[in-house]
Design brief:
- By secondary structure, the protein is of the alpha/beta class.
- The protein has a single domain, classed as Oxidized Rhodanese, domain 1 (3-Layer(aba) Sandwich).
- It is 30% helix and 14% strand.
- The strands form 4 sheets. Strands 1-10-9-2-4 form a 5-stranded parallel beta sheet. A two-stranded antiparallel ribbon has the order 3-11. The chain has a two-stranded antiparallel ribbon with strand order 5-8.
- β6 and β7 form a beta hairpin.
């Protein structure tokens, strides 16, 4: 890895070149308030050796906070000082149960949940998901359990980075100031073309050989009786 002094210089140039692209950020809440809440995170951009330049992040994965990390970056961030980082998996229960999760995750707090009663999505040929109304409140609880405040580093991960962006925006809107998204997620991006088109073998936590587990920890699960 580049030393921190070099990272600061590189990221300074990246911020300038990516400023126009920031307007394409995916925002699921009030944009003006979100931008105000994200100001401290933008300032932290020049201090972090892990932040990927926004210009390199697909528009649908960008956030108001503008803090992005790859799965390997996240592994280093959490490993350096796990007590000062909250690492949240925002996928559904089914994804964790049948696919597994990063071993270093602090908690599972789904950003989208199954509707009750179940509803069918004809366009997607699957069951519908809806925003989890308790998402922010549950992350607040997990943050308090670690003795951290909303200015602490919070990292969210999903399948490939799209839901993580929406989850990060929701947290930023709620006053969190340093929310990173894992831009390649747990499974990675799908192959764009060729015989393996659609297969998630490009990047991501599991493809990078980072520690993960198929055995779930009850204490980390969301709302278990």
């Amino acid at each position: 890895m580049l030393d921190r002094t070099m990272w600061v210089a590189v990221l300074g140039l990246a911020i300038a070149s990516g400023a126009l692209a920031a307007g394409d950020a995916t925002v699921c809440t009030d944009e003006t308030a979100g931008a105000t809440a994200a100001a401290p995170a933008r300032a932290a951009l020049a201090e972090s050796p892990f932040t990927r330049p926004e210009a390199t992040v697909p528009a649908n994965k960008r956030t108001t906070a503008g803090l992005y990390a790859t799965a390997t970056d996240v592994y280093e961030m959490v490993s350096e000082d796990p007590a000062k980082v909250l690492f949240i998996d925002v996928r559904t229960r089914g994804e964790l149960q049948f696919i597994g999760m990063p071993a270093l995750v602090d908690a599972h707090v789904p950003f989208l949940v199954e509707t009750n009663p179940p509803q069918w999505d004809d366009a997607a040929s699957t069951f519908k998901l809806a925003p989890n109304p308790d998402f922010v409140a549950t992350v607040d609880q997990r943050l308090a359990q670690k003795g951290l405040a909303k200015d602490a580093t919070v990292i969210v991960i999903c399948q490939g980075g799209l839901r993580a962006a929406r989850a990060a925006n929701a947290l930023t809107q709620a006053g969190y100031t340093k929310v990173y998204t894992t831009i390649d997620g747990f499974e990675g991006d799908p192959v764009a073309e060729g015989p393996h088109r659609g297969e998630r073998t490009v990047n991501g936590w599991r493809n990078a050989g980072l520690p993960w587990t198929a055995k779930l920890d009850r204490a980390k699960m969301d709302r278990v009786n």
